[in-house]
Amino acid sequence: MSKLTLGSYPHLLGFEQLERLLERSAKAGNEGYPPYNIEQTSDFSYRITLAVAGFAEEDLSITIEDRQLVIRGRQRDDSEGRIFLHRGIAARQFQRMFVLADGVEVGEAIIENGLLHVDLSRAVPETVVQKINIRKG
Predict the structure, then answer these.
(1) Omega of the bond leading into 34 within 30 degrees of 0 (cis)
(2) Where is the SHSP domain (predicted)?
């Protein structure tokens, strides 16, 4: 049985990039840590909120790599010289990736009360009508 691809459909011309985007999106960090929300804040803006309790601003990095928003967290190990009777709060690192569509721009990032907010905006699409002239061959 052969795998159906977007290229298999004759009316979907030039959508190979969309297929690659879907494959990248499926691979982009299926781990459940840290938990996050994605909300639509207006018709053309969004906010990603990650629960990053215990992470300081300098422990976090936000980059855009090949149309992917990559959020990384790495806590410093401050346990040297301390004796824990129980250690239930682990210092762990994470990487969350979000694939960005063309026209989506990353705005500001704010950390407050253990939550990291990253604002995104999408350019208002412009309606374009193009007339194609027909010439005799």
Answers:
(1) yes
(2) 27-137
pLDDT digits (tens, 9 = 90+) for 5-14: 666 677 666 7
- How many domains would you assign to the chain? 1
Q: Is residue 41 part of a domain?
A: yes
pLDDT in tens, 56-107: 999 999 999 988 999 999 988 777 888 989 988 777 899 999 989 888 999 9
User: Residue 30's pLDDT is what?
Assistant: 55
Report the alpha-carbon distance of residue 116 to residue 110 in Å, rounded. Answer: 6
Domain range for residue 63?
A: 32-122
Give the CATH number for residue 104.
2.60.40.790
